[in-house]
């Protein structure tokens, strides 16, 4: 049968040249014979692998048996019954043969070929244990490493699923390579660039290993093509850990110095963008296992400076990426400096997205100076994109909300006096007509034209605020810092002509509704707003329908949240949820015959949106706030039984409610239930645990959790490799058939605190309704939820009647 040399096997000419330099006379003739014999054996072994005939019965080796049998006995004795010899025991058995170097040189090629054919799953152990630079020619070491690597990574081999044995783990192959690099001179091993790429790809799940591989190759002075360096740097750049990004810059610096790489090519610019892109996830767990080579971590600003020193000519994408990264790290001053750098560069002008990212970062950090400067700069440059000004409106509300939360004298339900200033800012950019239709009882023209926004103490009850409409009461005789800081900025915004005003988006209107509702001190004013909004939906008003379609349940969530904060209003909140369920079930029933289930559970014209997982979480929060724990648990159970999966916010809400009530048993139980769902606790979870006065139980819980994590890691790390007992012909014949061995939303309302959207003012994606909002598209489930809500409402009515009767009886007895 004609051999099929694998594509990864280096061309013989490249290795023969080395033999010619090192050998002469009879030695060269013998070396040439060994060379061709080795190449043919490796190609034949690969053909056996591709044909699914490994392990191979006819490849038994007495030398290999004589090594593995004592190694197996030694390994078994040292590990109390473990069936796999390790590298040290094989090395000891190899040395115990007492052969000379010449004898080892003669026997080693046969030994390695037999190992690849008979014990392919353990060949890497045998190679590492018997490797000696004076015994193993460099081409044999290179071919063996390539064979092991491609046996694991070859798409052809994996697609055919022809390996009936465990291939070496990625870390094991890295260990083999590092051992050879450590034990050989710099000019000994020369792997192909495609092999280095495969190593990089194979190790991508552990970037510390990628870092170790790069450092070892540099120390060994192994040649690396610019594309190989870009691959390594690209893997490291995608890490959320700063030390990996810093190393990616180091890789780029060396590539620029040692190759013809141009940083301003598309490939170089893409790498720089990846380096500057900051991840939003928490990377603490990624830092638990570190690289053996430490790289000092740089901040996003320092990374940007290093890339500029490399010759980077930033474009709009690069600037946007670094500003976003700085904002995520709350390095807002540095982000503003980058914006100013863009403004000073004639070639790159910031767009609305850049301003929006900066405003969103300043909003989250409640940074007044940055909010002011971004708003003024955007206005001066004529930026009118609604995303930016949505963020500005949300910034006004967020700063007011945070200020109210810090004031312990303001008890729930708090009145957040942000709406008048929000109206003035809104009127500078957006058309008033859509908002006027939503809030007909508010004299928006008067509020927009009034000058009371300059007062940092808020408007008095008898002042202009009393003309906003029923219930818009703002606390008087109090200094509000948000008004003092942001009112001058609002007044400085240019007044646009009617034709220049921007049409508000759904996010814009939802933010304004949020500000309005949270400024009401009377729950009946909330009900009045909802009654009007429901009427708009029932009549099919295009603006109201579009608002619900764009923002889903956001307006309803604001109403439910506001009502649940008032004493005696949980029943009214349940009525809102019932409206939502009734319309969702009716719409789904209507579409059942010819329509889409996904469309039915989104929004129909004139219908309420279905409750999302956010709505249910808000309802649970209301029950927990009013210490109606059984009802909160009932809503949770109802969700799970009816196909609405609670998210992390739901569990955190339940946990925090129990913790605030100092019910430590329920708190710990909720934490354990959360973990059993496969969700990972976050900062809000641990903040909820901190509400407990009894921290002893919390400490015990966290210690138990840590112990479980350690045990799980130990179990994973202790998975044994396949048994290294000698394989008999009978065992080979009984080998199993080949198989392919393949190797789990934080805020229910958003970063503005009560319902406006997150992510720089972007609206939620209504098309993802059935994917991330926790909706059910089953008519029976929706009707079941509606019945459950009605049952809860009935129980609440009965409890209220019982309380009233008991109170009346006490009065009569008195």
Written overview of the protein:
The protein has 814 residues and is mostly helical. Among the domains are: 1-191, no CATH class; 384-508, no CATH class. The chain has helices at residues 12-22, 25-50, 62-78, 87-95, 101-118, 123-130, 138-153, 155-160, 170-183, 193-202, 207-220, 226-237, 242-258, 266-276, 300-309, 316-328, 332-344, 352-365, 368-380, 386-406, 419-429, 433-438, 444-449, 481-492, 506-517, 523-538, 542-551, 554-564, 570-591, 597-600, 613-625, 629-641, 648-660, 664-676, 683-689, 695-717, 729-733, 769-772, 779-813. Helix 18 (352-365) runs antiparallel to helix 19 (368-380), helix 28 (554-564) packs parallel to helix 31 and helix 31 (613-625) runs antiparallel to helix 32 (629-641). The longest helix has 35 residues, at 779-813. It is elongated. Mean pLDDT is 79; it is low at 75-83, 281-289, 453-474 and 713-773.
């Amino acid at each position: 049968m004609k051999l099929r040399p694998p594509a990864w096997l280096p061309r013989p000419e490249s290795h023969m040249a080395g033999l010619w330099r090192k050998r002469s006379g009879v030695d060269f003739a013998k070396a040439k014979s060994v060379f061709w014999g080795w190449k043919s054996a490796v190609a034949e072994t690969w053909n056996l692998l591709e044909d699914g005939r490994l392990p191979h019965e006819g490849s038994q080796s007495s030398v290999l048996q004589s090594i593995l049998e004592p190694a197996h006995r030694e390994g078994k004795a040292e590990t109390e019954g473990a069936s796999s010899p390790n590298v040290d025991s094989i090395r000891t058995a190899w040395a115990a043969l007492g052969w000379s170097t010449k004898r080892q040189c003669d026997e080693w090629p046969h030994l390695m070929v037999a190992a690849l054919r008979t014990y392919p799953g353990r060949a890497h152990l045998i190679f590492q244990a018997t490797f000696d630079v004076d015994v193993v020619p460099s081409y044999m070491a290179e071919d063996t490493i390539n064979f092991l690597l491609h046996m694991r990574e070859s798409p052809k081999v994996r697609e055919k699923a022809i390996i009936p044995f465990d291939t070496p783990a990625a870390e094991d192959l890295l260990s083999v390579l590092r051992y050879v690099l450590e034990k050989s001179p710099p000019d000994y091993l020369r792997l192909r660039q495609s092999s280095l790429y495969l190593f990089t790809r194979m190790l991508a799940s552990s970037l510390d290993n990628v870092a170790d591989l790069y450092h070892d190759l540099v120390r060994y002075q192994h040649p690396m093509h610019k594309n190989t360096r870009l691959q390594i740097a690209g893997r490291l750049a995608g890490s959320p850990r700063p030390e990996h990004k810093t190393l990616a810059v180091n890789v780029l610096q060396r590539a620029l110095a040692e190759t013809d790489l141009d940083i301003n090519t598309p490939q170089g610019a893409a790498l720089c963008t990846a380096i500057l892109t900051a991840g939003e996830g928490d990377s603490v767990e990624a830092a638990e296992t570190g690289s053996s080579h430490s790289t000092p971590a740089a901040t996003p600003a320092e990374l940007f400076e290093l890339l500029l020193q490399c010759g980077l000519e930033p474009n709009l994408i690069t600037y946007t990426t670094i500003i976003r990264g700085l904002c995520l790290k709350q390095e807002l001053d540095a982000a503003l400096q980058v914006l100013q750098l863009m403004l000073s560069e004639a070639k790159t002008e910031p767009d609305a997205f850049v301003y929006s990212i900066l405003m969103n970062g300043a909003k989250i950090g409640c940074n007044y100076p940055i909010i002011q400067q971004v708003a003024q700069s955007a206005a001066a440059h004529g930026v009118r994109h609604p995303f930016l000004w949505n963020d500005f409106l949300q910034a006004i509300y967020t700063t007011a909300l945070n200020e109210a939360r810090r004031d312990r004298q303001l008890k729930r339900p708090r009145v957040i006096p942000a709406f008048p200033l929000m109206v003035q800012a809104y009127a500078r950019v957006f058309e008033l007509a859509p908002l006027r239709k939503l809030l007909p009882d508010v004299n928006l023209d008067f509020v927009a034209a009034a000058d009371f926004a300059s007062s940092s103490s808020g408007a008095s009850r008898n002042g202009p605020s009393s003309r906003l409409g029923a219930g818009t009461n703002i606390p008087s005789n109090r200094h509000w810092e948000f008004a003092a800081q942001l009112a001058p900025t609002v007044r400085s915004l240019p007044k646009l002509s009617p034709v220049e005003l921007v049409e508000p988006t759904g996010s814009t209107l939802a933010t304004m509704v949020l500000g309005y509702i949270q400024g009401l001190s009377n729950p009946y004013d909330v009900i009045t707003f909802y009654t009007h909004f429901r009427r708009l939906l029932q009549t099919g008003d295009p603006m109201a329908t579009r608002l619900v379609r764009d923002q889903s349940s956001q307006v309803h969530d604001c109403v439910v949240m506001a009502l649940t904060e008032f004493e005696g209003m949980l029943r009214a909140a349940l009525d809102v949820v019932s409206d939502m369920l009734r319309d969702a079930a009716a719409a789904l029933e209507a579409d059942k015959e010819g329509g889409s289930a996904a469309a039915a559970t989104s929004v129909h014209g004139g219908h309420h949106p279905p409750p999302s997982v956010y709505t249910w979480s808000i309802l649970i929060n209301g029950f927990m706030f009013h210490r109606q724990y059984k009802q909160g648990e009932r809503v949770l159970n109802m969700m799970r039984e009816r196909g609405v999966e609670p998210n992390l916010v739901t569990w955190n809400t339940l946990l925090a409610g129990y913790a605030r009530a100092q019910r430590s048993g329920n708190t710990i139980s909720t934490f354990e239930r959360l973990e059993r769902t496969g969700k990972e606790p976050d900062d809000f979870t641990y903040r909820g645990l901190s509400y407990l006065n009894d921290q002893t139980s919390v400490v015990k819980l966290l210690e138990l959790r840590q112990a479980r994590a350690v045990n799980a890691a130990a179990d994973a790390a202790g998975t044994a490799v396949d048994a290294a007992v000698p394989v008999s012909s009978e065992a080979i014949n009984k080998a199993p058939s080949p198989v392919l061995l393949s190797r789990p939303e934080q805020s229910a309302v958003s970063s503005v605190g009560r319902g406006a959207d997150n992510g720089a003012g972007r609206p939620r994606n209504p098309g993802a309704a059935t994917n991330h909002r926790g909706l059910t598209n089953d008519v029976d489930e929706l009707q079941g939820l509606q019945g459950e809500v009605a049952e809860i409402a009935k129980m609440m009515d009965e409890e209220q009647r019982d309380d009233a009767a008991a109170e009346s009886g006490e009065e009569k007895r008195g």
